[in-house]
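Q: Convert this sequence to structure tokens.
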Amino acid sequence: MIRHLTLETLGDRALTVTRDFAAPPALLWRAFTEPDLVRRWMGNPGHPMQSAEADVREGGTLRYVWAMPDGTPLVVTGRYVVLDPPRRIVHAESFSPDWTGGETEIETLFDDIDGGTRLTMTVTYATPGVRAAAMATPMAAGMEAGYGQLDALLAEGLPG
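A:
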């Protein structure tokens, strides 16, 4: 199964991230929605996750905090818009400090492929300039580092 991450632009404000995992959609769903699991994989050595909280229901909220290399916190707050377990999550999020110019919408799909899962995440930014700024960062490498940690977590087996 090919696991590498691909990143493609879509329209003038969105980008699509695609990555395959050797685990079924139900396990990916858990890894993306259970705060104790999210803390174990989301982030990377340069940006470790300090806390994750989520009220996983339509209209529920989420809050993630990472430590930046200089020690300052990066906080994401958001709300769940659509939850269709284990296939689809749509949520809106905002950063503090706000580098995205407002709310960003993320649709995450978990498609069953040959006993694994193809994750397709569409991120829609507030403006074309914000998407360009995001694309100019090492975002893809950071996401792949987190997804590599998720591969390891899935390989060892999720609790419960």
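The CA atoms of residues 96 and 128 lie 20 Å apart.
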